[in-house]
Design a protein that fits this description.
The complex is a heterodimer of chains A (about 260) and B (about 150).
Chain A lengths: L1 H31 L7 H38 L8 H39 L2 H7 L4 H39 L4 H11 L2 H29 L4 H30 L1
Helix pairs in contact in A: 1-5, 2-3, 2-5, 3-5, 3-6, 3-7, 3-8, 5-7, 7-8
Chain B lengths: L2 H26 L11 E7 L10 E4 L2 E12 L4 E8 L12 E6 L6 E6 L11 E3 L1 E3 L4 H15 L1
Parallel strand pairs in B: 1-7, 2-6, 5-8
Antiparallel strand pairs in B: 1-4, 2-3, 3-4, 5-6
Classes of the chains: A mainly alpha (about 260), B alpha/beta (about 150).
Chain lengths: ~260, ~150
């Protein structure tokens, strides 16, 4: 019994300790962001690694999600003779919810795991210690550019996801199922507001970008420097990021809409 | 991958983002259509607004001239007070005896406010009140009235 209690307590103490380390790490990393103004090329390189490399999967899934939404919405709405509203449904679903959330999940799987694995391997092969030996601050050189790139890339990808999804919905709804094209766009415009729908979608993307990059980089920097440790850190990144995205999405939706 | 190619691809990425934002702003949302910022407001009191919501459109002869910016309950007159924002291009357009009615677009459609201009020479100005209003038709009341008039007639 005492053993069990001890293990239970140990787990909680470890968890709180990790949370504290993660927060300190975040503050240190945010403090190092300013140095990026001196070397913007580092940021561009990381934007390539996290943004451009994730682009293809985001665009393809965005297109298909839009197409599926249009198909489903049409099949339901045709019963009420309201098939003109397919555009509204597709646009609001994508811009408010699916755009940021699905992009966040894809981003965590594609770019977040890569970030963790890269930083974890840097740690395992003692490259981070090497940088410190050469008086190069790894926070400025390695962590901060990755963090800012992830933070910026996710909302951008989410916007592209929503835009291509709406086009996918147009392909199926208008070109295949025969909804009137002008009704598709005008109903959509009547229901979607730029500031409260598109703007809030972007804010969601920024929040998810912040959290996913933070988790990914911290897990990498905090991992046990063995091949096993790196692999479990990568798994944790994907799991924690996905859970954080889904939980935060609920909170943000409850506050925003 | 040399650094020039990376720069180019990141540039393309940024352009795609701006393209996506352009689509979201111009095609998906109503950034281009009438917004509540530019225009003047009118107030109309209704006995019953039915299912009218904020941002519902205000139309004259079926042409959108503005939107509903706020709906509140007036505890002094026991009426719903609806604030309409009319686009600036339609200032000095509606006479003071304009009627505001709540209509439904189609059988299941959204409710909107229709303005029917009267014949007065004076025009409605900013924050004027539209005194002639016609409430939303509530189906239950309509059925009740029909039943009442039928039983009264027999």
């Amino acid at each position: 019994m005492i053993d069990f209690l001890q293990r239970f307590g140990r787990t909680w103490i470890d968890m709180v300790g990790r949370l504290g380390r993660a927060t300190l790490f975040l503050l240190h990393m945010l403090g190092a962001l300013g140095s990026l103004f001196a070397r913007p090329s580092l940021l561009v390189k990381q934007l390539y690694a996290s943004g451009v490399m994730t682009l293809s999967i985001v665009l393809v899934s965005g297109l298909f999600v839009g197409m599926v939404l249009a198909l489903q919405a049409y099949n339901t709405l045709i019963d009420f003779g309201q098939e003109n509203r397919v555009g509204t449904l597709v646009a609001l679903t994508l811009v408010r919810e699916l755009g940021p959330v699905v992009t966040g999940l894809l981003f965590a799987g594609r770019a977040g795991s890569a970030m963790t694995a890269e930083i974890g391997l840097m740690k395992a092969t003692e490259q981070l210690s090497g940088l410190e030996m050469m008086a190069v601050d790894p926070y400025k050189r390695v962590f901060a550019p990755r963090f800012l790139a992830g933070f910026l890339a996710l909302p951008m990808l989410a916007a592209m996801f929503s835009a291509i999804g709406v086009i996918g919905g147009h392909l199926i709804g208008v070109d295949v199922l025969g909804v009137d094209a002008s009704a598709y766009w005008s109903q959509m415009q009547n229901a979607t507001s730029f500031y409260s729908d598109v703007g809030n979608g972007l804010i969601k993307g920024l929040v998810f970008g912040f959290v996913v990059s933070w988790i990914a980089i911290f897990e990498g920097a905090d991992c046990i420097p063995t091949s096993e440790g790196v692999s479990s850190a990568t798994t944790r990144t994907v799991v924690y990021s996905s859970l954080a995205i889904l939980g935060l999405d609920f909170l943000l939706t409850a506050v925003m809409f | 991958m040399n650094s020039r190619a990376i720069d180019v691809l990141v540039g393309v990425f940024m352009l795609l983002f701006f393209g996506a934002m352009f689509i979201l702003a111009m095609k998906v949302s109503n950034l281009t259509s009438l917004t509540s910022s530019a225009g003047y407001t009118l107030v109309a009191k209704f006995e019953n607004v039915g299912g009218l919501k904020a941002r519902a459109s205000v139309a004259a002869s079926g042409v959108k001239v503005g939107e509903v910016s706020a709906i509140s309950y007036d505890p002094e007159t026991f009426e719903a007070s609806v604030t309409l924002t009319i686009d600036e291009t339609f200032s000095d357009t509606f006479p003071t005896d304009t009627t505001a009615s709540i209509y439904t677009a189609g059988l299941l459609g959204e409710q909107y406010i229709g303005l029917d201009p009267g014949a007065e020479i004076d025009m409605l100005q900013d924050s004027d009140e539209i005194t002639l209003t016609q409430s939303a038709i509530v189906l239950e009341r309509l059925i009740g009235q029909v039943l009442f008039s039928r039983s009264g007639g027999s």
